Amino acid sequence: MALLDNLLTLHRVDSQVRALRSRVSSAETYFKAQERQLALLARQKTELETQLKQLQASVHALEVEQSTANERVDRLRADLNTSTNDRQYKAILNEMKVLEGQRDEIVKRAVEEMQRVDETKKRLETHEATIVERQKVREVAKGKFDECMKDVGDRLAELEAERARAADLVPDRERKLFDRVADETEGEAMAEITIVSLRHREFACGACNIEVPFETYARLSSNSNEAIQCKACTRILFLAEANRPADPKAAKGTKASEEDREKAALARDKAKFEKTKKL
Ligand SMILES: [Zn+2]
């Protein structure tokens, strides 16, 4: 087989491999994105839980402070009842007022902190519900990815082996060229030359439409063993089968069929002859 025929075979298998790989990789990308999203949500949940614990501890501390203040106020009230003189009475009363003020402040702070506890609990609940929803999405994504791997896995392995066999038929230099162009063009490494006008010797690259010189057309129509790239898009150019030079093996095939035709013609003549002989 000529180089360009082998390159076209390689191209055909390569395109199939790429299409399958991209199916798997998009399912994988989607699944991995769900995993990342869930990991982020889990971190946020831990942060909220830590926040909640801190707030609850702070509420508890304020409650302890509050009851200590209450006890002291109660003690002072008892002292007040047993105070013996006016000066002592006023002093205790003053201390009580200060303490009550402090206690009110503690109560106010405790109420605020409790509100924050409630808010944080609600946020945590909403967050947990989001996680449950996300887990469902992740399961669906995982199912699709597994299914894709199951469907595609074997076929991909087969195609990859086929691609390796096709690549083996192409010389090293041209294979590297093909691989490079295929990567650059997302698997569209080959471009058929469009004949714009044979009479005016006008040709174009079938992929990017940029003019292809007559010389390239002439070279490819007499020789399929050359990889010529489009000067604009770098794709490897080829001619439609009808304009390609006959493959030596294919030529043999034509010869064989010519022989067959001759044989058939001879057989027909012979039959005619037999017929006439009978008459
Ligand atoms: Zn081109």
Strand arrangement in the largest pleated sheet = 3-2-1-4
Bound chemical compounds: zinc ion
Rg over C-alpha atoms, rounded to the nearest angstrom: 44 Å
Helix amount:
over 70%
Explain what you see:
This protein folds into 2 domains: 165 residues, Helix Hairpins (Orthogonal Bundle), CATH 1.10.287.1490; 68 residues, no CATH class. The C terminus is likely disordered. The protein contains 5 helices and 4 strands, in the order αααβββαβα. A 4-stranded mixed sheet has the order 3-2-1-4. It starts with a helix and ends with a helix. The chain has 279 residues and is an alpha+beta fold. Helix 1 runs antiparallel to helix 2. The site of zinc ion has 9 residues, from loops.
Features:
single chain; 279 residues; alpha+beta; Helix Hairpins; 2 domains; four-stranded mixed beta sheet; 5 helices; 4 strands; rod-shaped; binds zinc ion
Question: Layout of SSEs?
Answer:
Elements: H1 3-82, H2 86-168, H3 172-184, E1 190-197, E2 202-205, E3 211-212, H4 214-222, E4 236-238, H5 248-278
Parallel strand pairs: 1-4
Antiparallel strand pairs: 1-2, 2-3
Kindly summarize this structure in a few lines.
By secondary structure, the chain is an alpha+beta fold.
